[in-house]
Amino acid sequence: WFNPWYLLWLLPVALLAPDWRLRALAVGFALLAPLTYLLQYDARLVVPAVFVPMATLAAFWHGALGLGRTSQPTGSVVAGAESADASSGTDRA
Fold it and tell me: What is the pTM of this model?
């Protein structure tokens, strides 16, 4: 299901990443992935030893992965609807 040698392409590509956190994630994953061989592909051991630390770090550094919040206009949709109702003279209560 997962072979660590798949990550061979990741390291050269990671060197091109502009953010050091993204490079650190790639290197960390490449260093932890060979544990899959030592743990003999047992998912009960590989997931907590390899994938959970990387997923935790990725969640902590979500901005480096481009997973940050998108910029939204000020005010929410609900607030915008309420202000539109107020300007038109209607009352929602």
Answer: 0.61
